[in-house]
Amino acid sequence: MKRVSLASWLITILAGLYFLVPLYAAFQFSLQMKRDTLSFAAYASVFQSDVFLRAFVFSLVASLAAIMAGAALVVPTAYWVRLRLPKLRPVVEFISLLPLIIPSVVLVFGHIRMFGSSSFLPLTTTDLGTNLLLVAGYVVLSLPYMFRAIDNGMAAIDIGTLTEAAESLGASRARIILGVIFPNIRAAIVSGAFLTFSICLGEFAIASLLNRQTFGPYLVQLGQDRAYEPAALAIMSFGLTWILMALMQAFANRKPGQRLLPFRKGPTR
Amino acid sequence: MSQLTLRALNKSFGTNAVVKDFDLTMEDGEFISLLGPSGCGKTTVLRMVAGFEAPSSGAIHIDGNDVTALQARQRQIGMMFQSYALFPNLTVAGNVAFGLKVARLPRAEVDLRVNEMLEMVGLAGLGGRYPYQLSGGQQQRVALARAIAPRPRVLLLDEPLSALDAKIRVSLRGEIRAIQRRLGISTLFVTHDQEEAMAMSDRVVVMAHGRAEQVGRPDQIYNRPATRFVAEFIGALNLLPATVTDPAAGQLDTPVGPVALNRPIARSAGAALHLAIRPEGLHILLNGDVANGPTFTGKVLDRDFLGPIIRLRTEIGPGTAMTVDCFNRDGASLPEPGQTIRLAVDAAAVFPLD
Ligand SMILES: Nc1ncnc2c1ncn2[C@@H]1O[C@H](COP(=O)(O)OP(=O)(O)OP(=O)(O)O)[C@@H](O)[C@H]1O
Ligand SMILES: [Mg+2]
Q: In this predicted complex, what is the ipTM?
């Protein structure tokens, strides 16, 4: 018994070191921009760059758009499949997993061929059209995570009976989806959204082939041009990811009516 | 507040006929229970009335209007589910208000009605709670309030009490019935608990294999079951095989000797049937008692103490068992297992079955 727990401690510590040492090294390195002294100069330099801010904000907007489009696509689909077409669920699930099998380069070349300048719908010829393609690509990339998260969320509540209860009270389909299903799988949607966000933020292939100035290509470019700033950015991305994960947990564990922050109690009038 | 008519309803899932030629007319404000063994199609009938399943054939009318083709949300029906099915994201008040908001009632009226409903189900003051903060019984009360708040034309309940513990089940069924009477709302109630059906209903529909075997008041169902299935399903029953010897005089022959019912039997001489005798239709003859009806002599096999009554299993002939109920009176001497006793039958309580 004692030895087992010793071994597992050892493994945990080794795994922790494997993960933390490079992180610490990167952090240490990111502080050495100024000679002979530790400073946050690299971080300051990142934030002073207009290109960084533009790329980051653009990525932010694009991934938010992808999240909304993805949820609007996946929630009704998963709902309908669970409610009316349970036999099709394996098929839909398989389709949702395709982006994990097919490289995104293939996807974006498909986009460029389908919607290129000589096609019936030349989306790539305008900025707006190309942005739309980018968001569409993001939606596809996020499908495996979105579908899983939302489908699991629906498994956790009895959507069949809730739907019937709402129907017997006179609610229309749209009202049921918006007023009953959506709020009850909000935690699932939010966790899907955070996963989507972190994928979109780091995404490189689609953005660079569509020639969009997003965060992913910016990071790669920066890695070629600079020494200290990429390390600082990597550390900040880590921080952001952790914050997102913490938020995801908080959302997932929240009971209806509770505030996100535990020290402010929910209303129990 | 409405009349519900089901006419020749049929429902098949693939080749599996689940409901067959089901007819029922429910009067204004009536409380009717669908009672039957598991899988007999009770829920399916209810779901067809609600509009969640389409009948394979037949028609459903509410107040004379054909609603068979209407969607569930157009039928103005209130429904209570076994699993409560409250909306977890809404407060108690939000749940009760749901149907009212869908119907676009003015806000002041919604608030008023919500309070009225919560008061009625005994949950005044709990409007701000969420379903997960309530006990099962409280959740089902909310479900009742939610179902009746929009003043539905018909209330449908699918085993709403079976997830609750025995004590709450009995008290809540009384409350449901009282509220139903007060609002005069026509109610169809599904249960497989015969005591529940008997206690609550104006009329009971006993179902078997998708058919209505008998429709009647609880006392009719119990005292005069129309078929052998109903007789055996409701309450405890003794069946004694018999052959008619004189139909006009009500004379029969049984393996334990001749029996006289002293009333005509609608069968021909020589017909084989069963005599159905409820355990409470028999009583024990003490030494010196004189019976003015048929009697049996039997040996006590065992004795069950059921509280108000004591149930004896006796053997009145080779392989012929007879169950007898007697009242539990303190101090009364009860036959012990192994003892031989004489039983008298109340001939009026004996009814012939095939
Ligand atoms: N959607 C369905 N598809 C196929 N068969 C079904 C479906 N719903 C019900 N059945 C079948 O119909 C029959 C009757 O079911 P129903 O749920 O009406 O029974 P019930 O009387 O309510 O039983 P219980 O007391 O167990 O709830 C069952 O044999 C069941 O398997
Ligand atoms: Mg059922």
A: 0.85
Q: With beta carbons under 8 A apart, name residues in chain B contacting A157.
A: 88
Whole-angstrom Cα distance, residue A266 to residue B168? 29
Dist CA A133 CA A187 (whole Å) = 28
For B231, the 3-state DSSP assignment is helix
Domains of chain B (ranges; CATH) run 4-232 (3.40.50.300), 236-353 (2.40.50.140)
Ligand 1 atom having least distance to the Cα of B41? 18
- Determine the Cα–Cα distance for residues B237 and B164; give it in Å rounded to an integer: 29
Domains, chain A, ordered by start: 48-252 (1.10.3720.10)
> In tens digits, what is the pLDDT along chain B, a chain of 354 residues?
578 999 999 999 999 999 999 999 999 999 999 999 999 999 999 999 999 999 999 999 999 899 999 999 999 999 999 999 999 999 999 999 999 999 999 999 999 999 999 999 999 989 999 999 999 999 999 999 999 999 999 999 999 998 888 888 899 999 999 999 999 999 999 998 899 999 999 999 999 999 999 999 999 999 888 888 999 898 888 999 999 999 888 899 999 888 888 888 888 888 999 999 999 888 888 877 787 788 899 999 998 888 888 899 999 988 889 999 988 887 677 888 888 999 999 888 888 888
Q: Give the Å distance between the CA of B44 and the centre of ligand 1.
A: 6
Ligand in nearest proximity to the CA of B34: 1
The candidate with the shortest Cα–Cα distance to B225, out of B345, B350, B41, B38, is B350
Cβ proximity of A117 and A124 under 8 Å: yes
